[in-house]
Design brief:
The complex is a heterodimer of chains A (about 220) and B (about 250). With about 220 residues, chain A is an all-alpha fold. Chain A contains nine helices and two strands, in the order ααααααββααα. The chains are: A mainly alpha (about 220), B alpha+beta (about 250). The structure holds protoporphyrin IX containing FE, iron/sulfur cluster and FE2/S2 (inorganic) cluster (FES).
Chain lengths: ~220, ~250
């Protein structure tokens, strides 16, 4: 088994399964976040966020998610750094326009941009909510919870630069996933000539949903208020 | 096809031996028929270099009919030049324009060191095959043709995989210099058939280990190899190799 962890395919296997896990998380995350746009009093989103934050399953999943991110980044970096050493003398002319997509060749840069965005995103919301500088609010059911809605709405309404940043974050994440989705299935061997076309199509639709979905939320607050 | 002649400049990689640093040199080649092949143009260029008392450019070639895979040239940024599903010997000069400068480089990969000029050492591929690209059978009379039934789709896919000529264009074009398409073809052509299934797990592990040892990168699934492969070897073979390799590691 030791051989497997160090093999080229083994390392890619971990990039793939962590990537698949992160992609599943993104759908749930987008699902909850989209509630921001369906109730301008904020109760719907706050209740949902409170439910996600307080139920025991999510308490287990949260650290797994953190580990998933770290493993994905570490393995992707190892794979990439090793690959950078495999062509010691470069071509003077190297033309890939017709043979591969731009995103597929630049996953590391797209990933790095996503990582920078992730850092800013955690500072904007996650750390504030987690380590409590957010005002509490109590609804009719008497449960006290963070007014996360106010935090998000405040930021997105007032700071155009942040809105632009989040739209860009959505777009780069979408590009990463436009290649990443089908690639993850190919890496675990779950593809053939028929499935490839289907996976690429579903991957593009998924990437589009993620990119548009996450971009539309800051724009909603910017334009409506 | 109208016979047209063009004048071109060939910017070509010159390297005395494996230890030489190497450099580009540019030669003018005039009156090249657009109906000639790229290698014929190289021959004309070399003739004139010889006449000028210069060393001709060394490049690999053998069959000149697209089946041996020797003609490994990286032309204007693409393995086997600006056309698909062909080797360099099948590339025509009609793909180029008058007064164009054509850049010709050897395959660039850690696993394929340059021997001289445009010739690279591809024995790494042979070593990968030695590691597992075979079936262990007792010799003797040829078995009866239909003794082992094989489904038509499996036979077709195995045959497609077997059409790999070991040219190395997949490695040359890959951003990671990965040999996955080659190894996948060589694993698939056997793994799809009953005779090859017996040793499938051992084969996948041994060939992947060899491929990693010999300096080839891993697969980012960009698909460039499939597009530049002269035989159109499908990426689905790489999915099969991944499957074979994962299963092999789970089962023991
Ligand atoms: C929510 C965030 C992310 C998701 C959902 C995600 C998803 C994926 C998926 C599904 C793949 C395809 C795996 C495969 O080819 O088998 C992938 C590949 C990759 N990811 Fe991410 N990723 C994310 C963030 C990142 C970050 C932050 C980095 C930072 C460096 C990164 C770097 C890479 C690289 C370099 C590859 C390609 C590896 C290769 O094949 O050469 N990703 N990602
Ligand atoms: S897979 Fe295609 S490109 Fe690679 S060695 Fe075989 S024939 Fe050449
Ligand atoms: S010389 Fe044999 S394939 Fe080109």
């Amino acid at each position: 088994m030791g051989r497997f962890y160090n093999s080229s395919i083994g390392k890619k296997f971990f990039v793939s399964i962590t990537g698949l896990f992160l992609m599943a998380f993104l759908l749930v995350h987008l699902g909850v976040n989209s509630l921001l746009m369906f109730d301008d009093t904020g109760e719907l989103f706050n209740q949902a966020a409170h439910f996600m934050g307080s139920n025991p399953i999510m308490k287990v999943i949260e650290p797994i998610l953190g580990i998933g991110f770290i493993l994905h980044i570490v393995y992707a970096l190892i794979v990439q750094i090793v690959n950078w050493t495999k062509r010691p003398v470069k071509y003077s002319k190297w033309d890939q326009k017709e043979s591969s997509s731009w995103a597929s060749r630049n996953m590391i840069y797209l990933g790095a941009i996503v990582l920078i965005f992730l850092g800013i995103h955690l500072v904007n919301f996650f750390f504030k909510i987690k380590f409590g500088t957010v005002a509490p609010i109590t609804y009719a059911d008497g449960v006290k919870m963070h007014n996360s809605y106010a935090l998000v709405a405040e930021l997105f309404k007032n700071c155009t630069a942040i809105d632009v940043l989040y739209v860009l974050g959505g777009i780069f994440l979408g590009l990463h996933l436009n290649h990443g989705f089908w690639s993850a299935f190919q890496t675990i061997g779950w593809s053939n000539n028929d499935w490839r076309k289907k996976l690429e199509l579903v991957g593009s639709i998924y990437a589009l949903i993620i990119a548009i979905g996450f971009s539309i939320i800051p724009l909603y607050f910017l334009i409506k208020f | 096809m109208s016979d047209k002649n063009i004048n071109i400049k060939v910017k070509v990689w010159r390297q005395v031996d494996a230890n030489d640093k190497g450099r580009f040199e540019t030669y003018e080649v005039n009156n090249v028929s657009t109906d000639s092949s790229f290698l014929e143009m190289m021959d004309v260029m070399n003739e004139s270099l010889v006449q000028q008392g210069k060393e001709p450019v060394a490049f690999d070639h053998d069959c000149r009919e697209g089946i041996c895979g020797m003609c490994s040239l990286f032309i204007n940024g693409r393995a086997h030049g600006p056309d698909t599903l062909i080797t360099t010997c099948q590339l025509h000069m009609r793909k180029f324009k008058d007064s164009q400068t054509i850049t010709v480089e050897p395959w660039r990969a850690k696993g394929f060191p340059v021997i001289k000029d445009l010739i690279v050492d591809r024995t790494a591929f042979d070593k990968i095959l030695h590691a597992g690209g075979f079936v262990s059978v007792n010799t003797g009379n040829a078995p009866d043709a239909n003794a082992i039934p094989i489904s038509k789709p499996a036979a077709d896919e195995a045959m497609d995989a077997a059409s790999c000529i070991g040219c190395g264009a997949c490695v040359a074009t890959c951003k990671n210099s990965s040999a996955m398409l080659f190894v996948a073809a060589k694993v698939s052509q056997l793994a799809l058939l009953p005779q090859g299934k017996i040793e499938a797990a051992r084969r996948a592990k041994a060939m992947v280990a060899k491929m990693d040892d010999l300096g080839f990168g891993s697969c980012s699934n960009t698909g460039a190899c499939e597009m530049e492969c002269p035989k159109g070897i499908s990426l689905s073979n790489i999915a099969r190799l991944n499957r074979e390799y994962l299963v092999a590691n789970v089962t023991d």
